[in-house]
From TrEMBL, chain A:
Coiled coil: none annotated. Homodimer. NCBIfam families: PRK09257.1 (NF006719). It comes from Brassica carinata. Residues 31-397 form the Aminotransferase class I/classII large domain. This is Aspartate aminotransferase.
From TrEMBL, chain B:
Amino acid aminotransferase important for the metabolism of amino acids and Krebs-cycle related organic acids. No activity with D-Asp or D-Ala as amino donors. In plants, it is involved in nitrogen metabolism and in aspects of carbon and energy metabolism. It comes from Brassica carinata. In eukaryotes there are cytoplasmic, mitochondrial and chloroplastic isozymes. The lineage of its organism: Eukaryota, Viridiplantae, Streptophyta, Embryophyta, Tracheophyta. One of its GO terms (cellular component) is mitochondrion. InterPro entries: Aminotransferase_I/II_large (IPR004839), Asp_trans (IPR000796), NHTrfase_class1_PyrdxlP-BS (IPR004838), PyrdxlP-dep_Trfase (IPR015424), PyrdxlP-dep_Trfase_major (IPR015421), PyrdxlP-dep_Trfase_small (IPR015422). It is an enzyme of class 2 (transferase). This is Aspartate aminotransferase. CDD domains: AAT_like. Its cofactor is pyridoxal 5'-phosphate. Its EC number is 2.6.1.1. PANTHER family: ASPARTATE AMINOTRANSFERASE, ASPARTATE AMINOTRANSFERASE, MITOCHONDRIAL. Keywords: Aminotransferase, Pyridoxal phosphate, Transferase. Residues 57-422 form the Aminotransferase class I/classII large domain.
Amino acid sequence: MDSSFSSIVPAPQDPILTVYFASRDDLSPVKLNLSGGSYRSEEGKPLVLQAVRRAEQQLANDMSRDKEYLPLDGLAEFNKLSAKLILGDDSSAMKENRVVTIQCLSGTGSLRIGAEFLAKHNQERVIFVSNPTWGNHPNIFSLAGFSVEYYRYYDPKTRGLDFKGMLEDLGAAPSGAIVVLQACAHNPTGVDPTLKQWEQIRQVVRSKSLLPFFDNAYQGFASGDLELDAQAVRMFVNDGGECLIAQSFAKNMGLYGERIGALTIVCTSEDVVRKVKSQLLLVVRPMYLSPPIHGASIVTTILKNSDMYNDWTVELKGMANRIFSMRKQLNEALQARGTPGDWSHIIKQIGMFSFTGLNEKQVRFIAKEYHIYMNYDGRVSIAGLSSKTVSQLADAIHAAVTRMA
Amino acid sequence: MAAMAMTIRNSASRRTMTSGPISGLRSMSSWWKNVEPAPKDPILGVTEAFLADPSPEKVNVGVGAYRDDNGKPVVLECVREAERRIAGTSFMEYLPMGGSVKMVDETLKLAYGNNSEFIKDKRIAAVQSLSGTGACRLFADFQKRFRPGSEIYIPVPTWSNHHNIWRDAQVPQKTYHYYHPETKGLDFSGLMDDVKNAPEGSFFLLHACAHNPTGVDPTEEQWREISQLFKAKNHFAFFDMAYQGFASGDPKRDAKSIRIFLEDGHHIGISQSYAKNMGLYGQRVGCLSVLCEDEKQAVTVKSQLQQLARPMYSNPPLHGAQIVSTILGDPQLKGLWLKEVKTMADRIIGMRTTLRESLEKLGSPLSWEHVTKQIGMFCYSGLTPEQVDRLTSEYHIYMTRNGRISMAGVTTGNVGYLANAIHEVTKSS
């Protein structure tokens, strides 16, 4: 019988996957994969946090637990604790009941639910994302019916923030447009605005009536301090205006595969919150009915137990510190080799990734000659480096920069 | 209240604002002024009302989740054991976009057969999905993207969320006759007429077994006729199989409709769910599969399904998939699961018999044959909305107003009370 789908062509391969497959098929014993977005320990292994293991055991031993459907908006306790984590224990917005939080499938799911809701209820159908941004941002929003525009963000000359360009582009955006802002540890560049710069960004956003949509995927992972990493978001919430926040526990709790996150919408009143929440649930039900329970249970167990919470913050700081240390070591290694160029951006950038400034030719060269894999835009996962492999990467960068323009 | 909130917020902003001009006025009014409250979900509304009812006699036969004979939710032994094995061992890394390969492989065997040639020939494009809902939604999105002019034919009645799913995927819907209120069985001739009259190459949603909400399934012979007619019309069959194993107690038997279509050469799509048959409701684990012409096309279609999943949730959740592959990958655990599924199905079948017999013993003037003829979790009782309302207000019995009774909520403890109440509201019919 004829297929209904015989004219379908294969989907384009995701570039990150291309790199992953190349690294997977490389048989060299010294190969190093720095293209992924998962944290690795000093031994180069994935890390499950102790706090998570404890929570897991507690849950597995609790015979009173069942596997019933969660409500459409997920685990209530999880929602409350997640909101507190990003908004602060003393959040006035929460005290005034102006916050709706629903459990979603990690950051991606939170963004998608938010996007679908906005597509139904926002007047403007244009969304601004940073240039560059996480590859999935444009997909998510265009699938929800938005046209995606870019605001200047990364300055290749300084390998830092193009602050002037950013303010100009946001200032020129149409009123009512939505702006995606990464709360901290920008992916892929590692370049974050300073708090002073955030304040100016906030002023432009509010004065132009742009709606901020925060992608908060690395809270605690950037500086090592959960409160510090939340400052940008709180600055916006504290001015009394509205915003959306997509939260993920994939990285900061190492719960990648469990798909646990939350979408928070801060509104001007309790009455608005009720209506917004009911409309959010209408988006969820025909997508997957209700969110998965396991990740939410682990997060809740940790956040509500002060011992586990403290242990977690210590481990989180440990991960962030290891990344700082790797940045320092890499920068020093390049300086020691006299590698041409200014490599200070490696220690100025923050979070899991560094935009090295290498071009595609250099990236391919490094893959071929040094068996080190990074994204074609020059993004490396610093979280994938260890003290043992820093010199290998430094050698590779040095060779690429001196031998290939 | 709103005014007070405004005042609090005003003073809060004045306190925390740093220097510099801020447009205070614009940020005061809400972006969401024009958002209307959403209509309440009928099924969830029933459970809410049940929970709020203080009566000690209350009975919930509304929601479609299995309960044991004490009315308690059940976690299967095989699931507990699987969890014990998983805890402490997993790395929790991202699954691939298409989900757990192991889980998908085992799941395909259940639907297509352990020795399916289609599996051997790698002709099935399959991805892990967010239970049955997620599988239906992915397929609907896929249908919209690659068959943009097509519509979906949905049975009347069906699970209400089916309408929401294809609507949100922006695929226009048509309906086909299914339930026959007079016989409380299948409107077979109506169904066949609608299949015949649909334009060639139409897309149909079929419930593989244990139809939700009616419990009415075609017989094997009827399935064969439906399949033949589908062949003549070149229609596409999409099966929602949410209750495999749960209907008759035998997963192979429950997949019969699918096997018939496969034998007849149809290239079908299937949504599979472990919510009910493994009791993994909240874990959201299932599978979407599309049978293709050949391996090359299967790879192509799978890549496109993954493209649709990525902007929805990137990759599917790990834990539920681990439970499924742990169980199905271990012959002992799998044997235990099959026993436990049969136990659940048997308990429901037993309750159907008891309910029917109780009503007949009470001398009901109506026929309750359909209670034992229908299959799966639900019974379409034939009660009118008014009768349902009476059951709720006078007897604290909760069900959806279409008269659907969740047999999984019936126990030896409440079946007598339920029968009596039903008799009372129907005896003058």
